């Protein structure tokens, strides 16, 4: 799968890695603390994906997601890509961290069958009760659409996978286009 990240700024190739003391290099979703949740997707120790160093950052551009059940919850790790013809994308979507009081940033699959595979939470305030934002990882294939409601004053937008390409557009524009497609 090809890996991308989507946020307010747009869609960029590659997912950024963060160094964790105990786990090594991981995809860190969310943040630690009260009212928050840090979800870490680690690199596989036996078959890790190729990591690129770009401007003091570590990025992964292609990998497969290996999922396993620990008995209490599902865990994931990134492994080297086996099938280069895999047309799915692994997309990191963040609705924060610019958060205002009382806001709730979230994501939702609205068309096709996008799969939310991992979620982390960030928050505003000491207890995380003043506002919250979501940081999630999605597997998307052609025809999938994810609606993103940012935690803040920004307008909602959609991340869509059409004709082998990932793009972003305002929700209002997407609804206008999709409603005109189905009118005779």
Chain-wise SSE layout:
Elements: E1 2-7, E2 10-13, E3 15-20, E4 24-30, E5 38-43, E6 52-54, E7 57-60, E8 64-69, E9 74-79, E10 89-94, E11 106-111, E12 115-124, E13 131-140, E14 145-149, E15 157-162, E16 165-170, H1 171-181
Parallel strand pairs: 1-10, 5-9
Antiparallel strand pairs: 1-2, 3-4, 3-7, 4-5, 6-7, 8-9, 10-13, 11-14, 12-13, 14-15, 15-16
Describe the model.
The protein is mostly beta strands and 184 residues long. The chain has one domain. The protein is built from one helix and 16 strands. The strands form three sheets. It has a seven-stranded mixed beta sheet, with no helix packed on it. A hairpin with a 6-residue loop joins strand 12 and strand 13. It starts with a strand and ends with a helix. The model has no long low-confidence stretch (mean pLDDT 87).
Describe, in short, the structure shown.
The protein has one helix at 171-181, and strands spanning 2-7, 10-13, 15-20, 24-30, 38-43, 52-54, 57-60, 64-69, 74-79, 89-94, 106-111, 115-124, 131-140, 145-149, 157-162, 165-170. It is mainly beta.
């Amino acid at each position: 799968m090809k890996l991308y990240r989507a946020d307010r700024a747009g869609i960029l190739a590659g997912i950024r890695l963060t160094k964790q003391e105990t786990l090594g290099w991981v995809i860190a979703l969310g943040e630690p603390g009260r009212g928050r949740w840090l979800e870490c997707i680690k690199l596989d120790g036996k078959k890790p994906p190729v990591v690129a160093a770009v401007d003091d950052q570590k990025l992964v551009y292609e990998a497969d997601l290996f999922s396993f059940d620990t008995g209490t919850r599902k865990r994931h790790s990134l492994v080297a890509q086996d099938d280069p013809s895999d047309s799915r994308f692994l997309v990191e979507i963040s609705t924060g961290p610019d958060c205002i009081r009382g806001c709730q940033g979230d994501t939702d699959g609205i068309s096709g069958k996008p799969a939310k595979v991992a979620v982390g939470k960030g928050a505003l305030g000491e207890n995380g009760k003043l506002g919250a934002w979501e940081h999630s990882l999605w597997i998307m294939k052609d025809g999938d659409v994810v609606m993103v409601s940012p935690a803040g004053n920004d307008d909602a937008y959609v991340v869509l996978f059409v004709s082998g390409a990932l793009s972003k557009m305002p929700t209002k524009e997407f609804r206008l286009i999709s409603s005109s497609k189905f009118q005779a």
